[in-house]
Amino acid sequence: MKLKHLAAIPLAMMASYSSAQNISVEITNLTHSLFFTPILVSAHSPDMHLFEAGTTASPELQAMAEGGDIAGLLGLADGMGAVSAENPAGGLLGPAATVMTEMDTGAQTALTITAMLLPTNDGFVGLDAWTIPEEAGTYTLFLNGYDAGTEANDERVVDGSGMPGVAGIPANPGGNGGTDGTGVTLTETNTQIHIHRGALGDTDATGGASDLDSRVHRWLNPVAKVVVTVQ
Amino acid sequence: MKIKSFIKYLSLGGVFSLLVACGGGGGGSSADSPVATPMTPAPVMMSYTVNVNNLTHNQPLSPLAVVMHSEQLQVWEIGMSASVGLETLAESGDPASLLAELPEADVYSSQPGSGIIAPGMSEEISLTFEEQAAVRFTVLTMMVNTNDAFAGVQQVDVSGLGVGESMTMNAPTYDAGTESNSETIDSIPGPAAGGEGFNATRDDVDYISRHPGVVTQADGYVASALDESHRFNDPGLRVTVTRTE
To answer: What number is the ipTM of this complex?
Structure first.
C-alpha cells in the first residue's frame, strides 16, 4: 500500500517524503571469554529477515556463523534496500567490550544484528528484525546465542575451518584453550537455526574431546546487551 | 549565583540587616530576647521493602548488600574492573567493605542482610530515609559455592513507586573476574568446599562479565569441588521492591 503510493510520486520528490530517523546502537559483549567477529547492524523493512530461528540458514548466514565473513550478508541487506553499519567495532569485539554506532535508518523500521561467536563452530549472536520504536527514547535488549545449524559442534580448533563446510572452529582469539581434541560430535542433528546449547569444553589442554576449556568458554544467555536510542 | 549575590550584599554594608534576617542565628545572646524556634518542618520519610528470593538449586546466597541511592552511583559495570569491595563480596560473601566504600553523598540508605539465604528461601529488608526526588536501588549477593559469582540488579529506578506499589525483577549472575573459576576445594568458600574467601590476588580476566556457569565434577572436571547440584542458570534471584511509606 505504502510502496504503491510512493511509486506514484516522481523521484525528485521522494527525498521529502522519506522519513529520516537517527538511532544509535550500543552493543555490549556480556560474555566472560567469547569474541564477536565483525558485527553487521542492518535496518530494513519488517517483512525481511537475514536469519530466522526455525529456518535453514542461508549460505550468507552460514559464511558469517562459521567464518565471521559478513560480506555475503551485507550484500543481502543491500539487496533489501537496508541501511547498514558494517563492522562498527573495526574487527573483533572482545569479551565485556562495548561498541556504539549511529545510523540514519530512513524509512526502515526493523533492526537486525549478527556476529559470529568465537570460539564456536557456527554460533552467532543475533537480533532478528526487531521493530524500531517510533517514539524517541532508550530501549534495552538482551540477545541470545544462536546455532546456525550448518556445522557439527566438534569444538576442534582448525586453521582454515572458517570456510563454509570445513569442520572446526577457525580461531580461538583468547588463546586460552587446548589442542588435539578428538572432537565432541560429528553430527548436527538440528540443521535449523536454533538457540545454541552452549560449549562443552574440557579441562585437558592437550587432548580430550574439545579444544575449548570448560571453565572458560561456556556461557549463559544472554550474550549481548543492546541499547538502542531513538532520537 | 547565590554566593555571588551574598557577597554583593555584604559589600553594600548590609551586615546589620543580614544578622536580623538570620533571626538570632548569629547572636541572640541577650537574656531577654526570646529564643527563636526554628520552623523546620518534620522531614518526609520514604520507606522501601526489598525481598530477595534465592532461585538457585544449591547455591546459598551470602548476606545481601542493599542500597538506596542517587542516580550517580553505579556499583559495577560490564567490562570494568571490580572494586576491592565488590571483589571481597564476590569472593568471600562479606558485604561490609563494599557498603563501606560507597560514597556517602550518593547513598540514601544501605544495609547488609542478616545472614545466608538458603536455596528457595527469601529475605526481606526495609530501608527508610528522607524523601528524595530520584531514588535508585541496587542489591547484590555472592553465590557462595562459586569462585567469584555474584547476582544482583542495580540502578533500578524506584522513584515512580507510590506507597503500596511494588515492582518485581529477575537478577542475572555476574562473574567479578577477580578469581579464576577453578572450582577447587581450596578456593570456594561455600559449604560445598569450605575453602578460602577473599584473596587480593587477581588471577582472572579482571573485568566484570556475565557468568559462564559452573562445570562441576559431574561434567568431567575432576578437580572441581562442585557436583551437579551446584549448577545454575539465569536468573539467580527474584527481587521485589515495595514502597511502604
So the answer is: 0.87
- Bridge partners of A110, per DSSP, are A44, A131
Return d(Cα B187, Cα A132) in angstroms, integer. 46
8 Å CB contact of A214 and B220 = yes
**Grid cell digits, residue B2:** 547565590
* Binary contact (A214, B219; C-beta < 8 A): yes
The answer to whether residues B165 and B242 touch, using CB atoms and an 8 Å cutoff, is yes
Residue B240 contacts residue B66 (beta carbons within 8 Å): no
- What is the Cα A114 distance to its own chain's centre? 2
Instruction: Kindly report, residue by residue over A77-91, the tens digit of the pLDDT.
Output: 999 999 999 999 999
Q: For residue B92, which amino acid is it?
A: S
Q: What is the pLDDT of residue B42?
A: 85
The DSSP 8-state label assigned to residue B78 in this structure reads B
* Rounded Cα–Cα distance for residues B194 and B188 (Å): 6
- Top residue of B150, B209, B222, B230 to mutate, by most chain A CBs within 10 Å, is B209
Quick check: is A151 in a domain?
yes
Q: Quote the number of domains for chain A.
A: 1
B31 belongs to a structural domain: no
- Cβ atoms of residues B68 and B80 within 8 Å: no
pTM reported for the whole predicted model: 0.85
Structural domain span for residue B66: 45-243
Which region among A3-12, A114-123, B222-231 has the lowest average model confidence (pLDDT)?
A3-12
Written as nine digits, the cell of B35 is: 529564643
Strand partners, A213: A202
Q: How far is B14 from chain A (nearest CA, A)?
A: 50
Cα–Cα dist B44/B130, whole Å: 6
- For A48, list phi and psi in degrees, rounded to 5: -105, 155
Q: Is there a domain that residue B206 lies in?
A: yes
Longest dimension (CA), chain B: 87
Side-chain half-sphere of A149: how many Cα atoms within 13 Å?
15
Beta-strand relationship, A40-44 and A224-230: unpaired
Q: Say how far apart CA B148 and CA A215 lie, in whole Å.
A: 13
